[in-house]
Amino acid sequence: MVLLLEQSEQTIYNMSFxxxxxxxxxxxxxxxxxxxxxxxIISAYYxxxxxxxxxxxxxxxxxxxxxxxxxxxYRLMEVKTTKLSDASRTEPTVLVFVESQYSSLGQDIxxxxxxxxxxxxxxxxxxxxxxxxxxxxxxxxxxxxxxxxILKYINMDSWNRSLLDKxxxxxxxxxxxFHKTSEKSLQSFQLKGFPFSxxxxxxxxxxxxxxxxxxxxxxxxxxxxxxxxPGTDWTVFQINHSAYQPVIFAKVKTPxxxxxxxxxxxxxxxxxxxxxxxxxxxxxxxxxxLNFWLHKLIFIDAISFLSGKRLTLSLDRYILVDIDDxxxxxxxxxxNTNDVKAxxxxxxxxxxxxxxxxxxxxxxxxxxxxxTEEEDEGDDxxxxxxxxxxxxxxxxxxxxxxxxxxxxxxxxxMILNKKFALRGGSKFKDEHECCPMKELKEHTxxxxxxxxxxxxxxxxxxxxxxxxxxxxxxxxVHVQLYEAWKKVWNIRITSTEEYPHLKPARYRRGFxxxxxxxxxxx
Length: 522
Hints:
Domain Heparan sulphate-N-deacetylase deacetylase: 316-427, 454-518
Domain Heparan sulfate-N-deacetylase N-terminal: 90-306
Oligomer: single chain
Number of strands: 20
Subcellular location: Golgi apparatus
Keywords: Golgi apparatus, Membrane, Transmembrane, Transmembrane helix
Main location: Golgi
């Protein structure tokens, strides 16, 4: 009996121990689960905070100047280059090697050279065969060499390449080249003879200019320009040599797809400058065509720099914005007071960037107060702000001058417009008083009311500048127009877009006729 009691007590004790152990295990599991949950929450918080901070830093990076980037894979510093072209030893002519007469990039290159008034000579880039003559007597024929496809230069046969390089070194002539990719191009490769690699057929974004590049002239370094660049056929240069400097940077959109991969978010050069420290020849290489507007500016600057500033554009710009047909237009299409206010506001805004910027308004007085009530108020608001603008005559009735067959008819029209403009009731000589004014007094009351438009409005008449409606009579020359302009307005300058031809615009020129200078419109 005693034995049974002892066994029962032992069993109860064992069960109690197991229950205590079970409860302890449950507490341990609950504590571990709680700890895991807290750890997950804390980790998620820090991951989110880090992601948010990374985005904020990325946004901040877009607001700083390009020169402020600290982790670009290039040395951004002032650099030394080889000597530039000697003006006394070469002609100011550019030798351009194109793929064909009709290649798109080749035509873009020629268009820029022609628009800049730079002399050039075109050659089809030879796959094999002789180069054109580079020297005449002891003088170099070309100040700069441009290759539409830099691979034609890289893969040139050794004899012609040595001749060309020798010419470039002896006459301090630079080379500009463009790398063109195709669907068959390798994605990663190296240019023969150059210590850097290239990645091709890429889409890029977020452009930035190296502020220390010696090429910059027209182009100015600025803040990071966010957004995709046009095209998916870009080439970026992987350089790690002091003889080469980046000019423009960009980020690769999908760097993880490259082999070997490149760092995500890093900037890579799309235009590089070979400083000529390796072989004495300075080169500028573009990783794309000229469709990107910034490449056009860098191309112009590269021409300027490599030619020793002999082929360069002035930094002075004179901007004149003519607004023709003031007071002209059908009801519902004319300026009201809000439009005039917007014009003044725009002018003031432009003056913050362009010293003394002033809109130049061309007026045709016959159409004053011929709109709706709101538009007539706009006319009055314009004349109330007459001193805020420049003004030029645009023919009283907006008729084209070549439709007038005699000088006296043109003079009559111009006098009407001048009477409309003058302040203080200035009188004309008797010979300028013409029949339409006398006949006007004998007409109906409606016509007499129309005469009230001839009151003085204080529009300046001494600018010496006029524009004919549609530039009619300027070229081809309508002699009567020039004579009438001189007699009534003392015109010294006008403009046209027709000389010698309307298109292409880059071929337009100015001329002088009857001591009146004719400028051309771009």
